[in-house]
């Protein structure tokens, strides 16, 4: 039976590239996001290219009841999830703390923390119920960030949400160990996806500046690392992995050309 991966935020960036990566290794794929047209396009392409099954789950991870209803109402054959890539998230704005927009803060907190929690809870319940005799019973990969390791100027609440992901991953690892569920936190540095375009609300020039003079990480780079973490022997769990491009040392120091 093919393995199943469930990826949130699969309409763009890391999530989309993870969908193609896992499909290329024979996984059936559950893809989530809010943009229905993109989900359809990605599903069509993956099915055609890799001859695997794709289930589209269109929901907003901030909507608690939509998360639990969508996941619990999946067809039974899709509930045997092997890997969750808990990736949906965003930054909104890059402003001094006292000048930042509280609407931006609320959306980041609701998406990056609460949304990630809802999905992890719903999926961990399925993993615990279905696979208690298998080792591992499942693997949850939470998308953190280098911003969850060190804060930077004007990063304030985005950084805080990713510090929360770090703490949640550590707590989940303790609490889910009794079910043999692996928990991994992946913490990328600057990666050239739609992330900055979203952060700067469609301002392409400002978004492009983030990657100026850098050979930044790509979505494919991150997908490669995420997939790698799922290929290790059953008893081996990568707890926490930080990945940057060669020209980035941490949240703050870059060697731009
Ligand atoms: P993208 O903007 O390219 O992709 C973000 C994805 O998240 C989209 O598929 C989007 O789908 C989805 N998403 C956002 N909000 C919601 C929501 N409320 N409900 C469901 N899906 C949602 O960015 P990245 O791929 O770069 O980002 C993915 C993750 O990686 C995020 O958690 C981000 O914080 C993190 N990260 C990014 C880094 C970077 O430099 N790019 C570095 C470190 C971490 P849709 O709009 O269709 O709902
Ligand atoms: C995204 C990376 O450094 O722009 O999480 O916050 S950073």
Short description:
The chain has 257 residues and is an alpha/beta fold. The chain has one domain: 3-Layer(aba) Sandwich (Rossmann fold), CATH 3.40.50.720.
Write up what this structure looks like:
Strands 3-2-1-4-5-6-7 form a seven-stranded parallel beta sheet, sandwiched between helices. The protein is of the alpha/beta class. Helices cover 42% and strands 14% of the residues. It has a single domain, classed as 3-Layer(aba) Sandwich (Rossmann fold). The longest helix has 29 residues. The site of NADPH dihydro-nicotinamide-adenine-dinucleotide phosphate has 30 residues, from α1, α4 and α6.
Topology overview:
Blueprint: E1 4-7, H1 13-24, E2 28-33, H2 36-50, E3 54-58, H3 64-72, E4 83-86, H4 102-130, E5 138-143, H5 156-176, E6 181-188, H6 195-199, H7 204-209, H8 219-229, E7 240-243
Parallel strand pairs: 1-2, 1-4, 2-3, 4-5, 5-6, 6-7
Helix pairs in contact: 1-2, 1-8, 3-4, 4-5
Bound molecules: NADPH dihydro-nicotinamide-adenine-dinucleotide phosphate and 2-hydroxyethylsulfonic acid.
NADPH dihydro-nicotinamide-adenine-dinucleotide phosphate binds at residues 8-15, 33-35, 38, 60-62, 87-90, 111, 115, 143, 145, 188, 190-191, 193-195, 198.
């Amino acid at each position: 039976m093919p393995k199943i991966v469930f990826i949130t935020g699969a309409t763009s960036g890391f999530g989309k590239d993870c969908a193609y990566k896992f499909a290329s290794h024979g996984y059936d794929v559950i893809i989530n996001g809010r943009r229905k047209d993109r989900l359809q396009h990605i599903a069509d392409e993956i099915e055609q290219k890799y001859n695997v099954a794709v289930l589209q789950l269109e929901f907003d991870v901030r909507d608690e009841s939509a998360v639990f209803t969508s996941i619990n109402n999946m067809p039974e054959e899709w509930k045997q999830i092997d890997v969750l890539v808990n990736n949906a998230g965003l930054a909104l704005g890059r402003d001094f703390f006292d000048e930042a927009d509280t609407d931006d803060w609320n959306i980041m907190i609701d998406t990056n923390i609460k949304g990630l929690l809802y999905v992890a809870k719903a999926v961990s319940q399925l993993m615990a119920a279905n696979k208690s005799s298998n080792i591992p019973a499942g693997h949850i990969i939470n998308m953190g960030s280098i911003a969850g390791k060190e804060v930077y100027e004007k990063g304030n609440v985005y950084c805080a949400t990713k510090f929360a992901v770090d703490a949640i991953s550590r707590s989940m690892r303790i609490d889910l160990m009794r079910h043999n569920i692996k928990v991994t936190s992946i913490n990328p540095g600057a990666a050239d996806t739609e992330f900055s375009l979203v952060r700067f609300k469609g301002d392409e020039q400002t978004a492009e500046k983030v990657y100026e003079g850098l050979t930044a990480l790509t979505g494919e780079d991150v997908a490669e690392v995420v997939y790698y973490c799922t290929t290790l022997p059953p008893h081996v769990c990568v707890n926490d992995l930080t990945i940057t491009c060669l020209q980035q040392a941490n949240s703050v120091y870059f060697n731009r050309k």
